[in-house]
Write a structure and sequence with these properties.
The structure is a homodimer of 251-residue chains. Helix content of chain A is 31%, strand content 25%. Chain A has 251 residues and is α/β, with parallel strands linked by helices. Chains A, B: Specifically methylates the N3 position of the uracil ring of uridine 1498 (m3U1498) in 16S rRNA. Acts on the fully assembled 30S ribosomal subunit.
Amino acid sequence: MQRYFIPAEHWNKDYVTIKGKDVHHISRVMRMEIGSSIVCIHPHDGPALTKIENITEESISCNIVEWLDEDRELPVDVTVAQSLGKGDKLELVVQKGTELGAARFIPYAADRSVAKWDHKKAKKKVERLQKISKEASEQSERSFIPEVTPLHSLKELMEIEGYDWCFFGYADEARQRSSTSLKTRLSKVKTGDKVLVVFGPEGGFSENEVQQFRASGFLSVRLGPRILRMETAPFYFLSSLSYQLEENEGD
Amino acid sequence: MQRYFIPAEHWNKDYVTIKGKDVHHISRVMRMEIGSSIVCIHPHDGPALTKIENITEESISCNIVEWLDEDRELPVDVTVAQSLGKGDKLELVVQKGTELGAARFIPYAADRSVAKWDHKKAKKKVERLQKISKEASEQSERSFIPEVTPLHSLKELMEIEGYDWCFFGYADEARQRSSTSLKTRLSKVKTGDKVLVVFGPEGGFSENEVQQFRASGFLSVRLGPRILRMETAPFYFLSSLSYQLEENEGD
């Protein structure tokens, strides 16, 4: 069933009003009519099954039939901080990271980040990433759209507060068999925890950055014994976290 | 350290001879000289640390210093069968799947595959995918290059033999909470097992295909509760398998 994320101010007790681009999509692209069912998603309350009651050029109103209890969200709140990368790597991270359940993305500039964003470029890039995150949320049937924050400095990342767990992906750990396994890290993460995980640029973190992470209380994470590209590392992390928390029943 | 995959016929007891494009890369691009160390990788025996002994226009000979025991390969042999997809989706699957440890890729045409390959196109596409797999193997420090097979039909896939486990990724399982968890499936997979996993096209498998899989003894796998795009599904599967088998020590 088609799904649309509707801003909080367009919801009432029994009905929801759809405006803007979604109106065109529902009436022209999908050619839906009065009586058709769609899922409307409230930014805080999640998805509701609704039925179209009225269609005009500017708006569509829908009756709320029932609130859905879908349970599509990772049981922990994960923020992926990803260094700027070449080409469309960040777009891939936001698209796939949204499918894999991330709650938030923070783009940041690392010492070795090849790509640079000036102020004007940063605003446009974040808008584009936010659009990708919305589309991926609809496609993957998420109940919430992950936020893409403005560009951060590494210093801002190190000083961030309010997280239960702060991790950084460290490629050199893949080369060491003796380092702490990812299972050891993730098995301590509990439902409701807030997790921040920082991934480095193409050339990895500088030694200085690794020292700063450790000094700021960040724990390094291994992601298997192979050397992953910068954009592959968050896929491994998020998939493993989902496996650990959402696919872990039985033996 | 730079890594090069060298065909079996170029190896002798104590030294290895490098020919073709790698000669240019080593002497011109990397500007390496006699005495430089590189890792040469034998297709069956894996990686060896070597030292350059002689450089000509056509070939480079290297002394074998020691065979390396790197342990970079997934302890199970995983074949990813991926349906043809739009654009460069298959290239992404082969690149990331190689980083994540797959042993083999089989492209195949599903009922709902939008993309079609004719005979001529198929040959070129497979060559291109094989090149991507080689590059990703070098980058991720694999000991072996995953093979990309010629295009298969679904019927050929169903009749394939020699696997301990045959799975298919089934998006509808994500919508059912009661279905068997991925952990239940993967915890039965043992070191040395051969695993085949089949992923569907953009629109998912047809009902007919699902019935055929079940009739042929394939087990369905869940990949978390969100609906993943066709190219994201193998990342989740391979990451979880690596997490289960390679990152599972401790608690």
